[in-house]
């Protein structure tokens, strides 16, 4: 195992080195939170793809491939489709707003109470996603390298927090680019071809597995639709994703490089599902399908190369963890703390770094206590989509949307989702179906009944959507 340990040690050292270099570029709040809004196509594609591809896309898609076959691609496929639509439909409006967070949109379009409530929901979502990624880091170390879960979480989570604190978005962007390259090589160039070849090739996979394993809809229409509601819409409104859109140098970069990132995410999910199929042929009796990725990597790859593939999986997980920790701390510092602080300037670089440390500690502690990765991820996306999606879409596309309607929609949608998850379980489809429906109905009904947004505020909002009236530091063509 020496070579595997050496590869992982080099990977961790590289992450910290890049984090230190990023610190030298983070001289302002704009640099720390959105990389100065200066990313070109290559950096933007890499960082957007890396933040989306986490434990669900890597370990989860491989697990689904092990259970259902090639139709396991739908989870990551919906993530990729969400990025595609975000880039083509929403990115221009988001780039013109010149904001740092999703919650800011609520105050610009609705009121301060909307900003506070949406910020709380978004923080809960981002922290839960960060916990799932950190948990998966511990699982990989335990299965592949025999390192116990607790020290693995402490080391992996600690490194993520450290390089995020050092340079903020610049550090994350640079580490994401490294992670994007490692993921591409590790998954597409090594584990996919080697595992399929070890299983006898694609033709033998088709013969050895049930016919449903090559049916793209075998996972079931209900599950595909559930992934659409949760993951597709989740990509449209998540702070971790929006914060990447804000880093684009131009609207053209956000649009076309975003399309490339979405296509890459969908291909990545397909590759992971195929690896899961190979694992099913090679190791048909795994007690837990979630171990399919680690098991196939451990058994089909030689020493050293196995370490590189583990680094690829860690890259996917750590990029998600760092992005969501920064996203939650950005909202906590700028949309909640600064709102109640006597000095609004307190949410500068130093304050944002302090909140990254605090958020990172919360994630590490929660990761040591929580066991159910899928459950935490389901809660996160159900809460996000059920509580925040409708008011955001209404803010961007419906002039009659009102602050009262937005607050009522968030409250009813969130409480409905939580209540139904308690009643029916986290794996049930009812929470997101009913919660989203209730959010839409309440938003429309209350907005039509309540007084409309004042003309001056609506005019100011529409000017922001056109890129007018944006603070100079945030304006980018």
UniProtKB/TrEMBL annotation:
It is a multi-pass membrane protein. Keywords: Membrane, Transmembrane, Transmembrane helix, Transport. The keyword Acetylation does not apply. It holds the Pfam family SSF. Its main location: membrane. It comes from the Bacteria. It is found in: Membrane. The chain crosses the membrane at residues 6-23, 43-66, 72-90, 116-141, 153-173, 180-204, 224-242, 254-279, 308-333, 354-373, 379-398, 405-426, 432-450. InterPro entries: Na/Glc_symporter_sf (IPR038377), Na/solute_symporter (IPR001734), Sodium:Solute_Symporter (IPR050277). CDD domains: SLC5sbd_u3. Belongs to the sodium:solute symporter (SSF) (TC 2.A.21) family. This is Sodium:solute symporter.
């Amino acid at each position: 195992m020496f070579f595997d340990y050496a590869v992982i040690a080099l990977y961790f050292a590289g992450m910290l080195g890049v984090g230190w270099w990023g610190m030298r570029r983070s001289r302002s709040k704009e640099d720390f939170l959105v990389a100065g809004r200066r990313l070109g196509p290559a950096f933007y594609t890499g960082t957007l793809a890396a933040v989306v591809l986490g434990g669900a896309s890597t370990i989860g898609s491989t697990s689904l491939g092990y259970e259902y076959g090639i139709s396991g691609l739908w989870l990551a496929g919906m993530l990729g489709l969400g990025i595609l639509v975000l880039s083509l439909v929403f990115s221009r409006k988001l780039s013109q707003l010149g904001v740092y967070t999703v919650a800011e949109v609520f105050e610009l379009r609705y009121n301060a109470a909307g900003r506070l409530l949406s910020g709380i929901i978004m923080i809960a979502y981002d922290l839960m996603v960060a916990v799932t990624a950190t948990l998966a880091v511990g699982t990989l170390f335990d299965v592949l390298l025999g390192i116990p879960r607790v020290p693995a979480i402490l080391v992996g989570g600690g490194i993520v927090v450290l390089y995020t604190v050092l340079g903020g978005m610049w550090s994350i962007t640079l580490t994401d680019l490294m992670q994007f390259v490692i993921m591409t090589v590790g998954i597409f160039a090594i584990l996919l071809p080697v595992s399929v070849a070890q299983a006898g090739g694609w033709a033998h996979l088709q013969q050895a597995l049930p016919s449903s394993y090559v049916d793209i809809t075998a996972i079931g229409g209900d599950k595909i639709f559930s992934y659409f509601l949760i993951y597709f819409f989740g990509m449209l409104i998540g702070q971790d994703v929006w914060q990447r859109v804000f880093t684009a140098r131009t609207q053209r970069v956000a649009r076309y490089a975003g399309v490339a990132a979405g296509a890459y995410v969908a291909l990545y999910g397909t590759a992971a599902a195929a690896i899961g199929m190979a694992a099913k042929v090679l190791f048909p009796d795994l007690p837990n399908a979630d171990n399919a990725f680690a098991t196939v990597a451990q058994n089909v790859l030689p020493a050293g190369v196995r370490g590189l593939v583990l680094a690829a999986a860690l890259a996917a997980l750590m990029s998600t963890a760092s992005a969501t920790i920064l996203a939650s701390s950005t909202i906590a510092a700028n949309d909640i703390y600064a709102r109640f602080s006597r000095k609004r300037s307190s949410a500068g670089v130093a304050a944002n770094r302090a909140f990254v440390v605090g958020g990172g500690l919360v994630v590490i502690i929660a990761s040591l206590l929580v066991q159910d990765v899928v459950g935490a991820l389901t809660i996160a996306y159900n809460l996000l989509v059920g509580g925040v999606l409708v008011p955001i879409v209404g803010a961007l596309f419906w002039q009659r949307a009102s602050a009262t309607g937005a607050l009522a929609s968030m409250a009813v949608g969130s409480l409905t989702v939580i209540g139904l998850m308690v009643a029916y379980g986290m794996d049930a489809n009812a929470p997101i179906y009913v919660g989203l429906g209730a959010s839409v109905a309440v938003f429309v009904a209350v907005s039509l009944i309540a007084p409309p947004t004042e003309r001056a505020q609506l005019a100011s909002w529409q000017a922001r959507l056109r890129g007018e009236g944006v603070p100079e530091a945030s304006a980018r063509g």
